[in-house]
Amino acid sequence: MTHFDAIVIGSGQAGPSLAARFAAAGKGVAIIERHKFGGTCVNTGCIPTKTLVASAYAIHDARRGAEYGFSTGEVRVDIKRVKARKDEASARSSKGVEAWLRGTANCTVIQGQARFQSLNTVVVNDEVLQAEKIFINVGARAAVPEMPGIHDVPFLNNSSMMDIDFLPEHFIIVGGSYVGLEFAQMYRRFGSEVTIVEMGPRLIGREDEDVSQAVREIIEAEGVHVRLNAKCISLAKRDGGVAVGVTCEEGSPEVVGSHILLAVGRIPNTSDLGLDNAGVVTDHRGYIVVDDELQTNVPGIWALGDCNGRGGFTHTSYNDYEIVADNLFNADHRRVSDRIQAYALYIDPPLGRCGMTDAEVRKSGRRALAVKYPMARVSRAYEKGETQGFMKITVDAETKQILGAAILGVGGDEVVHVLLDVMYAKAPYTVIQRAMHIHPTVAELVPTLLEGLKPFPSAP
Ligand SMILES: Cc1cc2nc3c(=O)[nH]c(=O)nc-3n(C[C@H](O)[C@H](O)[C@H](O)COP(=O)(O)OP(=O)(O)OC[C@H]3O[C@@H](n4cnc5c(N)ncnc54)[C@H](O)[C@@H]3O)c2cc1C
């Protein structure tokens, strides 16, 4: 049995930094990874998809050449080169994480599947490791729901998508949320016919209705087909292709295409970890139950990142690391509940989101003020020829603090931070109105926008 001060299972977005933090403090730490270093974000999530989104954006822009005063001739997409660019970005990052960990003094890197043997021992490659502190950062994977025909047809998910170097003729994407929407727009821009099949009555159902509607308009304008209310999805083989059965309120009951991407949610990688041997409790979906400081029910075991069900993003996983590291090394008392919801949807134009949705504000029953402004009236957006979308902000009528914002438009993923930082400062929105912003930017409109705050409608 080999003893360490700490064991980290998984090299996702929290694990490597935590291992390095222990090592820097002179503690012996082992980090175990069973697959590629860097985990989902680096290998099958953010980095490859945003690299592909960038290719799709450039291709789309080239097709719009005439609007900007140039001509290119026919724009031909070389999907193998698009993939090679993506592969390079992922490999660079994954190798960087591995080299960093292997080059860190006091850090032992082990490749293999980790499994708890007891509350303070882990087995990997038949070797038993022991530590007083164990950190689980095992992430999540694409869910495969038990739908009729699922075992009869080949389908892709975000991981297997990384290997395709051809253009599906007609791509059916099951799931109209964040992952599905990004792939839908990018493959449409690469040249596939694309249909999104969504069970719910609208796309990205967790957003406000006006956001869902605007996103739908943006992707439909590029020729993506959207089938909503697909209550009873089934899959079947068709001559040289696949069919997705949809019980829709309107339209054909079946969509026939060449390939299917399943983008219907994630499940945590916790079932093969031997958690029972350690007595670590999970919820009914397999997420590890943690307290506000990310400790499990077993003292000495923490769970960080997607596997604890408290985030689902790279930045939430990294923030988990910051919380745990500050609490352990700096005697701080940081808590998950102190963080403000923030994320982006990387279609073009992107959606930057922070804080509460309108629906959540309404549900909270508080008195609020709100404003909404079309991107078409933002000078910078107009100059760039990217005027789709809108910005909207909600503030508390009494405290004047910002409650939430949705910036759907060019630069929306960046502009939202103007609001997010003020929210963390717990400052009133009026401080933004005293700030001088740079012209011409999208962010410069935020102070002007706030002048238009009106009582928040109490009903939709
Ligand atoms: C298509 C897609 C696009 C995304 N885009 C974004 C985005 O733009 N922005 C964003 O913020 N988030 C995005 N995400 C989400 C983001 O990728 C994840 O939230 C993030 O990677 C989670 O990190 P993590 O630290 O929880 O674990 P992961 O990155 O999933 O890493 C877990 C690691 O643990 C390893 N592991 C698992 N079990 C074991 C075991 N028993 N033994 C040893 N090793 C094990 C795995 O191999 C993996 O390497 C995207 C996700 C997807 C699927």
Number of strands: 22
Q: How many individual helices?
A: 14
Q: Which small-molecule ligands are present, each listed once?
A: flavin-adenine dinucleotide
Q: What fraction of residues sit in β-strands? A: 15-25%
Mean pLDDT: 96
Rg to the nearest angstrom?
A: 24 Å
Unreliable residue stretches: none
Oligomer: single chain
Task: Report the end-to-end length measured between terminal Cα atoms.
Answer: 62 Å
Structural class: alpha/beta
Q: Helix coverage percent of residues?
A: 25-40%
Largest sheet: 7 strands, mixed
Rough outline: globular
Notes on the protein architecture:
This protein has 460 residues and is α/β, with parallel strands linked by helices. Helix content is 31%, strand content 23%. The chain is built from 14 helices and 22 strands. It has helices at 15-24, 39-43, 46-63, 65-68, 79-102, 178-190, 209-221, 275-278, 314-329, 358-364, 379-384, 412-424, 430-433, 445-450; strands at residues 2-9, 29-33, 107-111, 115-118, 121-124, 127-136, 140-142, 170-174, 193-197, 225-227, 234-238, 241-245, 254-257, 259-262, 266-268, 301-303, 342-345, 351-355, 368-374, 390-396, 402-408, 454-455. Strands 1, 2, 3, 4, 5, 6 and 16 form a 7-stranded mixed sheet that branches. β5 (121-124) and β6 form a beta hairpin. α1 packs parallel to α9, α3 runs antiparallel to α5 and α3 runs parallel beside α6 (178-190). The longest helix is centred in the N-terminal third of the chain and has 24 residues, at 79-102. It is globular, with a radius of gyration of 24 Å. Flavin-adenine dinucleotide is lined by residues 9-14, 32-35, 39-41, 45-46, 49-50, 113-114, 137-140, 158, 179, 269, 273, 305-306, 312-315, 317, 346.
